[in-house]
């Protein structure tokens, strides 16, 4: 059941909130006939048939005479939005051999052209309605289903009805012809290419090994080049007729309107849909079957050793059982919760073993039902070095202990407290769950053939079973998790000869001794027993900032706070602390310590609390501790709740006032960096991730990824020598926005942030470190990767600016880059099929006077790199000298308008805009113009902005091509066609 987990697993505002509400809601639509197919009057909804799980009364359920089922509900998060999901019960497992990839290709073709949409009109049509391509309008194809997704912001009656009409045409009558195939197959092949490389090879071979003998073994949703190129309109029509029918369709709608309106619209546009011919039953997906000769004493089935020189070592083995439909009852879900708790106990032990300096970097177990093909328990881990046998034995030893001996009640209670805290938080935040999330939950429940439950039901069921959480019951469920018909394994290694299938099989067959050393014990820790940060701080000023009920508090020690008590997100408090100088603090040779700081600074502890103590003291609490390095400031951030806020503030203040320097987290972070170092060159995207910022910042060493030599040379003493003074520098600002008691929060701030010792000033040399942009851009930068020969990436970038003086101009740049992005997608994706998802983005640091850039990026084939260069530069020139229509502007400003309106309902949105405002009050005033700045402009203004930043269209060019290849010549005649001249 979707809501019973199997494992407890920038924008801003410009106007008052009331003025940000959508101008019109779907509730104002013209009257529709009453829906006829709702399951009311005591009828059991279709999703709850055979279940005793209490129904979530927020949902209305319906089943039409043609077999189509639907679920609808009112949800106002965010205000005005309507989230629509259409699930077709057909994925890659429903394909015949010659149809591999057809389910995914059908998804693409449905967007290409359909009964009510001309070729290529889907994207601009929904952009005009305020939906952003790729996030608000999207689809997914899995082995078991295809889901079409639309999040329609600011849904007007006309826009909502039009959306249902268009979607009905896409589902029922996509236009499947040769021109559409010719346009869309290259895009799918580009998607396949961009996902290819070593990681895909490993995924494919692992799938073939773990699911041997089942359809899942050789049916990736992306398909094969052979079947995609061989697709015909007739074959695709046959696939569509077979699977796209009302009996295979579920429509889910959650949005800010009367759910009966949604039901009526579904019935209006889908009730007369009839399938063609007799309904086809889904194929048998198959069961995991042990190979000949395997038995209970020797259950080891298929194993594989995969050698990929550029990938880190990883091992996965799975205990496989047949998947069967279940009766989704309360008893069944109590079993799932017991399973989840059992896994949590083992995973905490494995993490403890890794922290103690074990033979593996990480390890975890997870039970999962995979694609209605197997119920399996997966064990995965990363050996620290070539001694994979020891790592395997160590991981299996921890599991053997869990299977042989019951856990302690203390261990069980600790995980139960964690679960209880999570479920409590879900209840508190139920009213602010986004409609898109709720719709996805129903879709996922349908996919696994289970039900949905409201958060309070989950909490009630869990609390009702606490008496069952005993060592014996957990042991029983643990043993079941590690019992199965067959065990299969894969090992990925960069070294030839390090292992082979025979060695892996033999190692899996070895008897291991139960290892109880990782069992965690210890007295509970309370914040009440910890030393104070210092003498309570003194407030020197306190007052409103002139925006809503937000107030500023200044302390005698120089710390400043912004507080906004609001119940717009019940149960949630977002906290962000800013200090220091960010990237300005470092020198050119500090790359390794920068990367290690991001990974190990928090986990190295504070005061009396090491990593294990930090985990223990926060058990059952909603607390976090994220560390970030920004352009000119360091940040701590977390999401917490009112009752945990004081202790959350203590953690932040304690890290600054009394940092701890445990060695093991640093050594573990070094091991992680070593293991991932080589994998950065396995694909063009990996190389860009490693090197792009380095080159955009004029080869400034602060923005380089550390070399292997730098990683090896880093020491605990060096780490502390760099980071200890940085934690002491720079005035502190903290922002606390959300649902809390103001008096209690002020008292907690006085005891923590206000009690910090005086801060040291940021050194002058750090304050003056400003990143630069390369001045010589005459020749492209050419880098290489060690991945597939048909993969490349390209970037064209232009220098922009920085600082708060021109912040309104930086917002207008977002409109310009959106215009650029639409044209680039049209050229490189829609016209050429050369790139699946080219992107244009703008970076504008507001804390620095420079350092901004505009970047156009695409992954493509090597021979298309010069085409991309020329196309991007030509589009830049056209924007600077050519014409932008009002429709062009509407297609980008309306999605920006809706994005701002949606984002403005969340606390994080406000916090993001106001961080830094205690030192720079201009940020407060600037929010008042934000909506106008992002959504109102003219063609002339865009042309002037493009002329300022793009000039003649030049810019820095960077290519990442396969090793051994050279950059091809440009093809200007092709570019003329691509940009529509």
From TrEMBL:
Keywords: Hydrolase, Metalloprotease, Protease, Signal, Zinc. SUPFAM superfamilies: LuxS/MPP-like metallohydrolase (SSF63411). InterPro entries: Metalloenz_LuxS/M16 (IPR011249), Pept_M16_N (IPR011765), Peptidase_M16 (IPR050626), Peptidase_M16_C (IPR007863). It comes from the Bacteria. The keyword Signal applies. The keyword Methyltransferase does not apply. It holds the Pfam family Peptidase_M16_C. Residues 1-26 form the signal peptide. Residues 232-415, 716-892 form the Peptidase M16 C-terminal domain. Residues 81-194 form the Peptidase M16 N-terminal domain. Belongs to the peptidase M16 family. This is Insulinase family protein. It comes from Parerythrobacter lacustris.
